[in-house]
Amino acid sequence: MNPLLRDLAPISDAAWREIDDQATKTLKLTLAGRKLVDFAGPKGWDFASVGTGRARPASAAPAEGVEARVREVKPMVELRVPFELDRGELETIARGGKDADLQPVVEAARAIAITENKAIFHGYKAGAIEGIAEAAEKVTLRLTDDFERYPVVVGEALGVLRRAGVAGPYGIALGPRCYAGLTETVTSGGYRVFDHVKRLLDGPIIWAQGVDGAVVVSLRGGDFALTIGQDLSIGYLDHTRTAVRLYIQETLTFQVLEAEAAVPLSYDKGAKGKRDR
Hints:
This protein is an alpha/beta fold. It has a single domain, classed as Major capsid protein gp5 fold. 29% of the residues lie in helices and 28% in strands. α1 runs parallel beside α3.
């Protein structure tokens, strides 16, 4: 049986297509980490863990003269965001309407995408995930709201990576505060700071909701691994006479294999401006 139970929902094929389309558009816009790290999957809903290649001695031997070691794994984390749609709006789609209110789909897709971004860049301790910025914390460079200095800081980050022997190409994930500052700030010469940073990099500049500050990373491969079991999918929970309850979910884990391949850029806690969300 399909674990998403979509055939049990009182939703027409046309409405399902519109729901999936709205979710896909939001996910493509919001998912950021996937654009900068290695991606493995989808491996399926029943995929439970990723082997790390490490093992630890068992807490007790199974028998005299017998040694035992326990393999270490990274468990998959299930993320789910429930949401509710009005049945009247779904019926509007079935009748051919083009203006149905599917905002709950957009909000749920955005929420789970930002959660994935946060796990990749800042970790999720309860899910045994260490984020890139956590793993590379020792080489963190400080930011201020003087965005004209941003190219200097990015240049310093690239220098840190090259001195560590980490080859490019290089990319950067910019939290909302950084992205807005770079795109809105123009130097005295009339150039956007964003364009200066772009010239420094030979890889992408990614708008990354959920990232606090920014992270410069190498894209050479083999340094960061995102493993997906069930990729982002929408399933059915239940319904009433007036509403249908759905959810969007995925299973994932993330590994930092080489912390030297990233340099976080962070604001001081007391720095002016709002913390990225």
